[in-house]
């Protein structure tokens, strides 16, 4: 029997048991869809994080409280950075151009009878410049607002859409912890940055935040969540990092482990990239397990098929079919199931990736490598798991097979 005849026979046998064939293919469909979707969405997430961090520019540094080891060990943010540290950096580090400390906390924001939960940021006038987050309307916080602890606020676009669809927000008053704040500005649309939706923010003077909203929580001064720093140029970033680290070690009297960290946007990009890659690899591995499970399903069904078709196998061998013919037919059936399931799974995965790209800010990419790899692996698994049932069928004694069918 030639190869084409074997394919026709295998196809007709699978078509005769449509429900069983479909259920057997389901495992391969799920596995291939998972692999393609996971890799595509993972690459999209990494690309989005890269684009967002690149928006900050290569000159930006972040001074964060606690060492990297300490931040990994606890969910509580260490209280080791204060506003005085930011002022010292601004005054004593020559390779920087701007500093903007900030203190963050989620708060309920009220306007008349409506309310929403938003990220409240206490900061200083240099914040829009460093974070490349410009004011679209009105003005930003200035030095006088800081010195006088003024109750003024600049709001993000989503706050405008939530409260001020028909009203000009400038001059209106919102309430934070039942304290009225006059709106003096509206920020331009920005989107999300590393999980933080900057359009859902309310920015107020850092002094007002400390003295009227959160209170003083550090014995060393006015606590900040982190300090944004802008270097003079790209070539000055390393020097700025070195100078800030030395300055803070002196200020904090550190003799052993640092109680702070200085991260450049490039370092953060590398960290985010490694995390995204690690998650993609892990999820792809888990998706690959479903392919193996699907392969086991193919083997089980093929074993059942061999048992049910004992008489057919015996008759064919009695009529002159060789072990190679029988082996080839069952292997072809296993491969058809695996390849068909793989193709449907890949199409499903591509559809999922496309839908995610439409309904989310991600820009997932459909990798040709992942498609080829997924199809090759599923075909190989089908072939591998189909060998045992095929060998069992090929080794059946025709006389025993015919007698057992009577």
Summed up, the domain count is 2
**Strands, count:** 12
Counting helices, strands and paired strands, the structural category is: alpha+beta
The overall pLDDT, averaged over residues, is 81
Description:
With 406 residues, the chain is α+β, with helices and mostly antiparallel strands. It folds into 2 domains: 3-51 and 271-405, no CATH class; 79-258, no CATH class. Helices cover 58% and strands 18% of the residues. The protein is built from 14 helices and 12 strands. It has helices spanning 3-16, 18-56, 68-73, 83-92, 127-131, 143-147, 157-163, 206-214, 237-251, 265-308, 310-318, 323-359, 368-394, 398-405; strands spanning 60-65, 96-111, 114-123, 135-138, 152-155, 173-176, 179-187, 192-193, 196-197, 201-205, 226-231, 260-264. It has a 6-stranded mixed beta barrel. Strands 8-9 form a two-stranded antiparallel ribbon. β2 (96-111) and β3 form a beta hairpin. α1 (3-16) crosses α12, α2 packs antiparallel against α13 (368-394) and α10 (265-308) packs antiparallel against α12. The two termini are 26 Å apart. GO terms for molecular function: transmembrane transporter activity. Keywords: Cell membrane, Membrane, Transmembrane, Transmembrane helix. It is found in: Cell membrane. Pfam families: FtsX, MacB_PCD. The chain crosses the membrane at residues 21-42, 275-305, 326-359, 365-388.
């Amino acid at each position: 029997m030639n190869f084409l005849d074997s394919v026709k026979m295998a196809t007709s046998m699978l078509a005769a048991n449509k429900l069983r064939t479909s259920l057997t293919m389901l495992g391969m469909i799920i596995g291939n869809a998972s692999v393609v979707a996971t890799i595509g969405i993972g690459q999209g997430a990494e690309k989005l994080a890269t684009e967002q961090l690149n928006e900050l520019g290569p000159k930006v540094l972040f001074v964060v409280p606690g060492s990297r080891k300490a931040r990994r060990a606890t969910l509580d943010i260490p209280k080791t950075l204060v506003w005085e540290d930011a002022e010292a950096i601004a005054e004593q580090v020559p390779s920087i151009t701007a500093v903007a400390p900030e203190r963050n906390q989620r708060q309920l924001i009220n306007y008349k009878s409506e309310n929403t939960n938003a990220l409240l940021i206490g900061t200083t006038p240099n914040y829009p410049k460093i974070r490349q987050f410009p004011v679209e309307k009105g003005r930003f916080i200035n030095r006088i607002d800081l010195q006088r602890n003024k109750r003024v606020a600049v709001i993000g676009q989503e706050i405008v859409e939530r409260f001020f669809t028909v009203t000009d927000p400038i001059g209106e008053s919102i309430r934070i912890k039942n304290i009225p704040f006059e709106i003096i500005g509206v920020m331009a649309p920005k989107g999300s940055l590393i999980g933080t939706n900057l359009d859902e923010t309310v920015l107020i003077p850092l002094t007002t935040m400390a003295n009227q909203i959160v209170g003083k929580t550090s014995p060393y001064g006015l606590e900040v969540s982190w300090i944004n720093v802008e270097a003079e140029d790209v070539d000055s970033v390393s020097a700025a990092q070195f100078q800030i680290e030395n300055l803070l070690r002196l200020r904090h009297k550190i003799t052993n482990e640092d109680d702070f960290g200085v991260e450049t946007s490039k370092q953060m990009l590398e960290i985010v990239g490694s995390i995204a890659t690690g998650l993609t690899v892990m999820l792809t591995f888990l998706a690959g397990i479903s392919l193996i499970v699907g392969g086991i399903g193919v083997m089980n069904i093929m074993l059942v098929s061999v048992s049910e078709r004992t008489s057919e196998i015996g008759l064919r061998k009695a009529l002159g079919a060789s072990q190679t013919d029988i082996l080839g037919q069952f292997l072809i059936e296993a491969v058809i199931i695996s390849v068909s399931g793989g193709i449907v799974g890949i199409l499903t995965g591509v559809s999922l990736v496309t839908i995610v790209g439409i309904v989310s800010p991600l820009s997932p990419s459909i990798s040709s490598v992942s498609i080829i790899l997924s199809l090759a692996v599923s075909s190989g698994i089908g072939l591998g798991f189909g060998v045992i049932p095929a060998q069992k069928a090929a080794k059946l004694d025709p006389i025993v097979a015919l007698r057992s069918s009577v």
